[in-house]
Design brief:
Elements: H1 10-15, H2 43-61, E1 74-78, H3 88-92, E2 101-105, H4 111-114, H5 120-128, E3 132-136, H6 141-151, E4 153-169, E5 176-192, E6 209-216, E7 229-235
Parallel strand pairs: 1-2
Antiparallel strand pairs: 3-6, 4-5, 6-7
């Protein structure tokens, strides 16, 4: 572990004096950890950022104004979040709201976490504690099935139509008359509110716009019948966004 910290520029970061600590964020500072996790820094950069994340979580958990509505909101933003996942996330996420902390994890699929050795139950426990999920188009079957299960089921009405035709003879030499009938049956059953195959059909962008399913468990979307989810279109290409 010590040899990992011998990466370029790492000793200067952790061995000298500093004017910034995780607690500084509570005073309104935004700290950006821009240490590469590939190339020269490699595992050194990953360990530094993972350590900072853990120290930030602990400092937020013991903040003096914890639980007060007047406490300053803070956020923890993780791009490629699977690289920085830790067992402490399982303890931190359920009480993050009480700490006035918004935790954003960006990743492509669940297997990014699993292939790094993180336990599936721990990963799903963290995501299950989150209030808001944004799902873009995805080709990973297991991730799509999990997302569909998160959205839940809904009552769907199935209508079946059937036609039948019978020939009735009027005699040995007489003409045959046809009798036809139509029957209709209506059934209701629970089914996936948003099927996992549908995630592959969300608009992928390319023309500056993409689609995403927004799941907000504490909100109801009037435009989608009061359900806690809806499909929205986003402007993706910043060059096409009008400036004011």
């Amino acid at each position: 572990m010590a040899s990992v910290l011998m990466g370029r520029g790492i000793s200067e970061m952790i061995s000298g004096e500093t004017n910034i600590t995780p607690e500084s964020i509570l005073s309104g500072k935004i700290v950006i950890l821009d240490v590469a996790v590939k190339g020269d820094a490699g595992q050194s950069g990953l360990m530094i950022q993972a350590a900072w994340k853990y120290l930030f979580q602990r400092s937020i958990e013991r903040r003096a104004d914890k639980g007060l509505k007047t406490a300053r909101p803070v956020f923890l933003w993780e791009d490629e979040g699977h690289l920085f996942f830790s067992p402490h996330d399982v303890e931190f996420q359920p009480t993050a709201r009480d700490c006035r902390a918004a935790h954003v994890i960006i990743t492509q699929n669940l297997h990014n976490f699993f292939q790094l050795g993180h336990k599936p139950d721990a990963v799903k426990a963290v995501f299950g504690s989150m209030n808001t999920h944004i799902f873009h188009t995805n080709g990973d079957l297991e991730t799509n099935k999990w997302a569909s299960e998160r959205i839940g089921t809904a009552i769907q009405t199935l209508t079946n139509f059937s036609n039948s035709s019978n020939r009735k003879s009027s005699g040995a030499e007489g003409p045959n008359d046809a009798e036809s009938g139509t029957s209709t049956s209506v059934n209701q059953q629970f089914a996936s509110a948003f099927r996992h195959e549908s995630f592959q059909l969300l608009k992928k962008g390319g023309d500056g716009f993409c689609e995403a399913l927004l799941l907000w468990t504490s909100h109801r979307f009037a435009g989608n019948g009061g359900k806690p989810y809806c499909v929205k279109q986003f402007q993706q290409d910043s060059e096409n966004i009008p400036h004011t």
